[in-house]
From TrEMBL:
The chain crosses the membrane at residues 21-45, 61-81, 88-106, 112-139, 146-165, 177-196, 265-286, 298-318, 330-350, 356-378, 390-409, 421-444. Residues 20-450 form the Major facilitator superfamily (MFS) profile domain. Coiled coil: none annotated. GO terms for molecular function: monocarboxylic acid transmembrane transporter activity. Signal peptide: none annotated. This is MOT6 protein. It holds the Pfam family MFS_1. It comes from Nycticryphes semicollaris. It is a multi-pass membrane protein.
Length: 489
């Protein structure tokens, strides 16, 4: 057998079997350690507020920055993966996450916590999570959909276990020592990264470390330098502008946003939705404690949401994958967002523990629908060859509203001294986003049908229809989507 054939045989053996399942197990653990981690921050809300003498708005900036960076760092992570590979990105992320939480245990002010736990830990979690999901695209071809569905259960496990562990450690040793222990736990991301060893392509180059493409105009510049001449300053400036524009085009698809109405509606709707989506996760525990619920039972509320997600999310994903819902998943998604918004009114009615349990059950079912459908719908409205760049803009925009939503609501609570405004605000953003997306896509669908009836061809019909994508092994020039499944919901 030739050397190329031997390499191809080894690459085929590495995919969908053997070590690939160890990589999948590492990805499950990574998602629990990274995406599940912010779910426990509400447990520390009251203690941090008391120790730092901070307002609700000031305290809520800490989890907001962490979640926003976790989502918004996607394009930076894609560049890191492209240049150094998935294993390096995961291990670097684990190191940053651990250092961030260890540093947080020594913070003397809430503003220092923004930098350590918010920015550093958030960025580290982003690198570990997104690179960990990306590597599944290399290790799995035939079973890629199943692998991503299994990996996503790590989020639900994290939602279930982190709050319980947090409350136990907080009661036993205080928040500073707890953060110190969390730093050690998050370092396990490095162990997960070490498991993700490179797979070889038929060319013999590591699959996780493709060579970065040369910048436009770079060859001409190199040729001029090799001839002993320097490029003209105007040419240099034009080359830099072109390279910068093409880099933005690659990772932040503004052209798709301007031309694709479906993507435009969906991105605006989800960005608006995120203003209210994270509010219950941040304020539910302090709201319950303020209304007389014991701290341990209050922490249990978040765990209930995560536990139900473990079972409901995969079922929702399987149901939505049925061909009956092809092209209609946006309506299921809007319905799930609407249910999230309506469920918040349960908290306004009563703050009894039994009532809050009912609220968590209903909210968890609705959240499962949102989490399972968010990126399936995005794949429905965007061609797969541009999915990675469309996802980059999508996550950056939603990270902005994830950042400002909780602090603005916290400011309202500080002014009114009424926690009910948390749930009023959340309901307003969720319900209005659901109605906007549902009605807009309905109007867009009618418009497209009228065009078809009048025999006016659509410019880009695949933008509004689901398109099956082959899962055959991609060539070296075509790396898989930078992120297959990203969500904190």
């Amino acid at each position: 057998m030739s050397q190329g054939g031997a390499i191809a045989h080894e690459a085929a053996k590495a995919q969908d079997q053997g070590w690939a399942w160890m990589v999948l197990l590492a990805a499950v653990l990574l998602q629990g350690l990274t995406l599940g981690f912010p779910s426990c921050i509400g447990v520390f809300f009251t203690d941090l507020q008391h120790d730092f003498q901070a307002s609700n708005s000031e305290t809520s900036w800490f989890p907001s920055i962490m979640v926003a960076v976790l989502h918004g760092g996607g394009p930076l992570c894609s560049i890191l993966v492209k240049r150094f590979g998935c294993r390096f990105a995961v291990m670097l992320g684990g190191l940053l996450s651990g250092v961030g939480m260890v540093s947080s245990s020594f913070c003397k002010s809430i503003s220092q916590l923004y930098l350590t736990a918010g920015l550093i830990t958030g960025l580290g979690s982003c690198f570990s999570f997104q690179a960990g999901v990306t590597v599944l695209g290399y290790y799995f071809v035939r079973w890629r959909t199943l692998a991503n569905a299994i990996a996503s259960t790590g989020v639900s496990l994290g939602f279930t276990l982190w709050p319980l562990l947090s409350q136990y450690l907080l009661d036993e040793m205080g928040w500073r020592n707890t953060f110190l222990i969390f730093g050690g736990i998050l370092l396990n991301c490095c162990v997960c990264g070490a498991i993700m060893r490179p797979v070889q392509l038929t060319s013999g180059s590591p699959l996780q470390s493709p060579k970065p493409a040369e910048e436009p105009g770079r060859q001409a510049e190199v040729a001029q330098l090799s001839n002993g001449t320097s490029p003209h300053p105007e040419l240099q400036q034009q080359t830099r502008r072109t390279a910068c524009f093409q880099l933005l085009q690659k990772y932040l698809a503004f052209d798709i946003f301007c031309q694709n109405k479906g993507y435009q509606i969906y991105t605006i709707g989800v960005t608006w939705m995120m203003m209210g989506f994270a509010l219950p996760h941040v304020y539910l525990v302090p709201y319950a404690i303020q209304n007389g619920v014991e701290e341990r039972r209050a922490a249990l509320l978040i765990s209930v949401i995560g536990f139900i997600n473990i079972f409901i999310r995969p079922l929702t994903g399987l149901l939505s994958g049925h061909r009956v819902f092809t092209g209609r998943r946006i309506y299921l998604f809007s319905l799930a967002v609407l249910l999230c918004g309506l469920s918040n009114f349960i908290c306004v009615i009563s703050a009894e523990f039994s009532v809050l349990i009912i609220y968590c059950v209903i909210l968890s079912i609705a959240m499962s629908g949102v989490g399972a459908l968010t990126f399936q719908v995005l794949m429905d409205v965007v061609e797969m060859d541009r999915f990675s760049s469309a996802l980059g803009l999508f996550t950056v925009l939603e990270s902005i509203t994830l950042l400002i939503g909780p602090p603005l609501t916290g400011l309202l609570v500080d002014i009114t001294s009424d926690f009910h405004y948390v749930f009023y605000n959340s309901s307003f953003f969720l319900i209005s986003a659901a109605l906007f997306m549902g009605l807009s896509f309905c109007a867009l669908e009618k418009k497209n049908k009228l065009k078809e009836a009048s025999k006016v061809p659509l410019d880009h019909p695949s933008r509004y229809q689901y398109k099956e994508v082959s899962t055959e092994l991609q060539s070296e020039s075509q790396s898989p989507p930078a992120v297959v499944y990203i969500t904190s919901v």
